[in-house]
């Protein structure tokens, strides 16, 4: 079933670029923000004083809090890298403006690569789902997956909600906030009969009753969800490997991030570090963000005996890094990895346009 989202906003970075290029608006915002962040009024910003600006930017873009989504976490990470570039302890207003511009444009690049859709889930799609002819077969399938003699009927219902997707009108029920603010209040009001036996028939009837109540709850208190989808098919690696100039440039830059011995040789154990450095240019997620991708990278490293700890010359190290990328590419071309993330945005949704307007 394809639910139609009545309220969605795609964050692809285009509005950020437009605002940064508006010199008058951007300069006014920088003046206001700098004064707000400079708590000790010394005319400079410490890294600690800069951190709230990162959080504000993320909230304004509708990004979930750090730690909630691999996609948004990568964007936050890129922002922090821009702020700490050069390890400046204090930042002047001109530098703050330059860095903030870089941060915003970096965010725009990240969002262009992996757009985040902001959904306002108001119960309409959930009601449509339970009234649709596909409801019963889909829920029968879910029940067969979760059925357990150790669970009560109510526990089956909770687990079933965790299986529903935003396309079916349900915010992520695995989120503790959704459980405590949506599911638990509804279940208290609905009072599922604890004496009912756990059967498919009882499950279908009771789940539908609870789902309709959840939909009414969402109508009164909509939930904002940041939804992102990424497919890693190896095309980004293929583009990088086919462009020798760009590949050499990125590998040379990556070499600066790994230690060398006195003769300039590098331990193969640092290949994983270099691959993480190359990830954005190769259209890959950062290591640690997607389990399936981590497994593919680990397999590729093992195939090349890349983690045997041997010391090699820089040129051989670069060649190995390119070969590992090629191996990852071949695996992804044969079996692409798709990742979907849904995170509740707990703060009121604010547009980037609103954020960059100077306060009166």
UniProtKB/TrEMBL annotation:
Keywords from the UniProt entry: Calcium
Record flagged with keyword Calcium: yes
Highest taxon, organism lineage: Eukaryota
GO MF term list: calcium ion binding
Keyword Calcium part of the UniProt annotation: yes
Annotated SMART domains: EFh (SM00054)
Protein name as it appears in the record: 39 kDa EF-Hand containing protein
PROSITE patterns recorded: EF_HAND_1, EF_HAND_2
PANTHER family: CALCIUM-BINDING EF-HAND FAMILY PROTEIN, CALCIUM-BINDING EF-HAND FAMILY PROTEIN-RELATED
Residues of the EF-hand domain: 25-60, 246-281
